[in-house]
Amino acid sequence: MRETIQLGEIAILVTRKAIKNVHLSVHPPDGRVTMTAPISTRLDVARAYAISRLGWIRQQQDKLRGQARETPRKFVERESHYVWGRRHLMTIKYADAKPCVLLDHKRITLTVRPGSDAKKRAEVIHEWHKGLLHSVVPAIIKKWQRKLNVHVTSYFLQRMKTKWGSCNHRAGHIRLNTELVKKPKDLLEYVIVHEMAHLLEPTHSERFMAILDKHYSTWREARAELNELPLSAEAWRE
Known about the structure:
Blueprint (H helix, E strand, L loop, with lengths): L1 E6 L2 E8 L5 E5 L4 E7 L4 H10 L1 H12 L14 E4 L2 E9 L5 E4 L3 E6 L5 H31 L5 E5 L6 E4 L4 E5 L7 H13 L8 H10 L3 H10 L10
Parallel strand pairs: 2-4, 6-8, 9-11
Antiparallel strand pairs: 1-2, 3-4, 5-6, 7-8, 10-11
């Protein structure tokens, strides 16, 4: 059951679950606020708790509003692009051949056919991004399957407007946002571990947090770093 608490201009979406304590979250990029409360919690009690945390909510929202944003990419000469957390300048070359992308320590060289528009250049880069992720994700999953004693039946890469990742715990599937290729590899690993932990506990309960605490003790720092890095022009949240 979902309800909404309205505190002035702040709307808080309340979800009731079989947990012991109330969890309040402020989500990037726009400061959306959610509360997860035990099933038996009265709405007036939840409201009183939210009021007690109003200063913290506004502080978190102000922090998110001041966060750096990427401008929309145009895939043009000398434009900045990030790969694994490092900035590279783009070089565009034209050739009557299959499009390709080459990466060195300072530059991304995108070769496309003459007349290719920005949409086509974006498609080539996105496919390249997926290739980079495919080159590292399986090893990370294999490593954490052993540590968590779980099995990922398959993983998928896709553009995701509202999440860094997701998990279908019944099917054993995880999905990863292709934007993660722009972030440092340790943050990609954090997202993978986060989603794989949902195979053990599907909700963000105390048990879920205990699993992360046990196996990935720096997960809070990783989450904070991920949310402090420049956001895409679109809205993303973990």
